[in-house]
Design goal:
12-stranded mixed beta sheet, 4-stranded antiparallel beta sheet
């Protein structure tokens, strides 16, 4: 999938995972003891705070770094981090501290000032002092025209940002645009140009061949033309792999990096011998501002960021990581007054060179990654107190080995998938038959995200009109049947570890509608005329019968022919048979698997065929969604502290701009929804925003492109025998995890 999906599913918070309260800062000496070993899923060795792409790699980076802002247990930003701020949660007062104080000022001209004042006693783990120059350096890295990490700092409406990023293009884009016959070697040599095209041809042909092999192995198509056609590209019938590759590149406007990450059938271009990052250096092509006027150094330890408009989501992005200039950049190239910010504009090579070896002011120092284990040692200069445990290790292992690892002593804590079976296994391990006992202590919290079933409006519609009433009714027919089986499915898989949700938003969000709200509704519980489908006295069979009756009404309203309780014919552009994909390991191991099979059986009784495709390889789902091959699918969204909906649902039709974010998955295009999303972004009033987001959620449900299924719980399990449970972060929440006060964690 495109990188924006990685942002949504992985980088759910940009402020630091580390915060302080209670005992923070009281540790006088790190004890020499056994290391704490944490069970983890596999790493990708991209441990950079700028370029990490997975949650696991980001956790490694976060062990070693801090961010400008931090959050409390409810996901709210702590604005008095330097001086400390006490907030109540679950009946307990906690004091939170962070690297800086923040003051926000709304001005009459519509601009907004974010004024930061840093502590003056923070050191990086190598002993160097942290200053406001390190913050400015970190901001300019993420604002650079060639930056391609997951941060969206450059997209903030910061005064002067557009002018700074203008007038520069990457060497990659320029070399590709110049072509093979270029004779102007002002910006590169003829030798470099020859190598560029030779390597790209070789890697490109192999890249396409992998797609062809994939399509042929899975029965989608045969040959280059047909396979790339199934992948979403129109290629001449006689095209070979190389010709097909350049058709793909042209459709991506020469953006080889995006093509490589979005269309791969397994290997990236870099894996195949052509690394786009080798050509990521920027080349000046026109006028470009020397600095970002809205990033202002106002004192030795103070900084102002000026936004040209209100952006309620900006505070989380402004809480940027603070990376050491002297390590990731070049101090000889930093002079704020001379518009030098630690590297040559357009050249982030020094930052990229440190991707696998992070360094910062976090609680631990990165030592090495060896044989599947990341090794850390305590940072004695950590500003919130020297960690109590001298060494920590993050150890790779499969999910099924995590519970046994805690029991056998190979690891001390981990986060396993928390299903009904997992909960039973934990309870059986403890002598008291509970999930917390003499062997294992379990800390559960709602997952920062939710499970859903998606329906592509582009694939499931009537007559090619994605937003027509007929198309919406077609999708509502399926949604009604799916929704009917959510309760039994979620209960059988998770038991008490999950609950059914009725809006496409995580229950962890302050914007999530509550059952006590006057206008709260059960998802897809009304028929085509707006009448309630179910009554309180219905049993499971009666509810299924009622759901199918309602579905027939929706099918008929969509233009299907319905006779004697069955669908007998489809209108133009619609079908009698559809597929739903689910990454259930090929064994049915997925929270929504039962729902799909029950729905398939039920729909068959009214003449509709729903084929459930169980994928052994989950990556197949994402590449196929990208290729518009998946009409319906099951997956889960990650969430963030702010419920901004731009990345997932904004289409651009209201403003005339290109569609944003991940909306290509649903292909929802609603100008009213677009306007509401932008309205919610332009206010700091949470009550107003919640009302706006409720309207957004109702529109999304009306489009029937997403059926909310479950809000599950996450679990962190600790060895009761080895870990000092009193040292574990108290009151863990989705926004304040077990790592938040890791400096206090210790073994017995």
């Amino acid at each position: 999938m495109k990188k924006v999906i990685a942002v949504l599913l992985v980088l759910v918070m940009v402020v630091s995972v580390f915060a302080a309260c209670g005992k923070t800062g009281t540790n006088d000496k790190t004890e020499e003891s056994k290391p704490i070993v944490v069970g983890y899923s596999n790493f990708s060795s991209k441990f950079s705070p700028f370029f990490a792409e997975t949650a696991y790699d980001l956790d490694v980076a976060n062990m070693t770094t801090i961010s400008l802002l931090t959050t409390d247990r409810q996901g709210a930003v702590v604005e008095l981090g330097k001086t400390g701020e006490t907030r109540a949660y679950n009946g307990t007062d906690y004091k939170y501290e962070g690297p800086a104080d923040l003051k926000i000022t709304e001005n009459d001209d519509g601009t907004v000032y974010y004024d930061f004042e840093l502590r003056d006693n923070i050191k990086f783990s190598d002993g160097e002092a942290l200053t406001v120059d390190d913050v400015i350096f970190s901001m300019y890295v993420q604002a650079d025209p060639t930056f391609d990490g997951t941060s969206t700092f450059f997209a903030l409406p910061i005064e002067g940002m557009e002018e700074y990023r203008a007038g520069m293009a990457s060497l990659l884009s320029l070399m590709y645009a110049a072509g093979r016959e270029n004779t102007d070697f002002t910006n590169w040599t003829e030798e470099d140009q020859t190598k560029f095209w030779e390597d790209l041809d070789t890697a490109g042909a192999a890249f396409v061949q992998e797609i062809v092999d994939y399509c042929e192995e899975n029965g989608y198509a045969e040959g280059v033309s047909a396979s790339l056609g199934a992948w979403g590209f129109e290629v001449p019938e006689d095209a070979d792999a190389l010709a097909g590759f350049y058709v793909m590149v042209d459709e991506y406007g020469g953006d080889l990096a995006s093509l490589s990450s979005a269309e791969t059938a397994g290997s990236s271009l870099a894996d195949l011998g052509f690394d786009p990052s080798d050509y990521a250096i920027g080349i000046k092509t026109g006028d470009s501002a020397e600095n970002i006027t809205g990033i202002i150094k106002t004192g030795e330890n103070t900084l102002r960021v000026v936004l040209t408009e209100i952006d309620a989501t900006a505070i989380y992005t402004l809480g940027t990581v603070i990376a050491p200039l002297h390590y990731y950049g070049d101090t000889a190239k930093y002079d704020y007054d001379k518009n030098q910010f630690g590297f040559d504009k357009g050249d982030l090579s020094s930052v990229r060179a440190k991707t696998s070896e992070p360094l910062g002011a976090g609680p631990y120092k990165f030592q090495k990654f060896e044989n599947g284990v990341v090794y850390f040692e305590a940072n004695e200069d950590y500003y919130l107190g020297t960690p109590k445990t001298a060494n920590i290790q993050f150890k790779e292992m499969s999910d099924e080995d995590k519970l046994n690892g805690v029991l056998t002593g190979s690891i001390d804590l981990t986060e396993p998938s928390f299903s009904l079976d997992a909960a039973k296994a934990i309870a059986e391990a403890n002598s008291n038959g509970e999930v917390t006992g003499d062997k294992i202590t379990t800390d559960t919290v709602n997952n920062l995200g939710y499970g859903y079933l998606g329906i592509s409006a582009k694939a499931v519609n009537v007559g090619g009109e994605l937003g027509s009433d007929a198309s919406k009714n077609l999708r509502k027919a399926f949604a009604t049947v799916f929704a009917n089986f959510r309760d039994v499915t979620v209960d059988s898989y998770y038991g008490e570890a999950a609950s059914v949700i009725n809006y496409p938003i995580s229950d962890t969000s302050w914007a999530a509608p509550q059952k006590t709200d006057a206008n709260y509704a059960i998802a897809f519980s009304k028929d085509v005329d707006g009448n309630e489908i179910y009554t309180s006295d219905m049993d499971a069979d009666a509810k299924t019968e009622a759901a199918l009756k309602a579905a027939l009404g929706f099918f008929e309203a969509a233009g299907y022919t319905v006779a004697d309780g069955k669908v007998t014919a489809a209108p133009a552009g619609a079908k009698m048979e559809y597929e739903v994909w689910i990454p259930a390991d090929g064994t049915g191991d997925h929270p929504s698997f039962m729902m799909l099979n029950l729905a398939s059986d039920a729909l068959a009784t009214i003449g509709i065929t729903l084929t459930v495709k169980d994928l052994a390889d989950s990556s197949e789902l994402w590449t196929s969604i990208e290729a518009d091959q998946v009409p319906m699918w099951c997956a889960a969204w990650g969430a963030s502290p702010d419920p901004d909906m731009y990345q997932v649902y904004y289409s651009g039709v209201e403003s005339g701009k290109d569609p944003g974010g991940s909306n290509y998955m649903y292909d929802i295009a609603d100008p009213t929804l677009d306007k509401l999303i932008m309205d919610a972004r332009s206010s700091f009033d949470q009550a107003y925003r919640k009302t706006i987001y409720k309207n957004c959620l109702d529109i999304i449900v009306d489009w029937a492109v997403e059926i909310p299924v479950y809000q599950r719980q996450n679990a962190v399990i600790f060895s009761t025998e080895r870990v000092n449970i009193d040292s574990v972060t108290p009151d863990i929440t989705p926004y304040y995890g077990w790592m938040a006060e890791i400096q206090n964690l210790e073994l017995k």
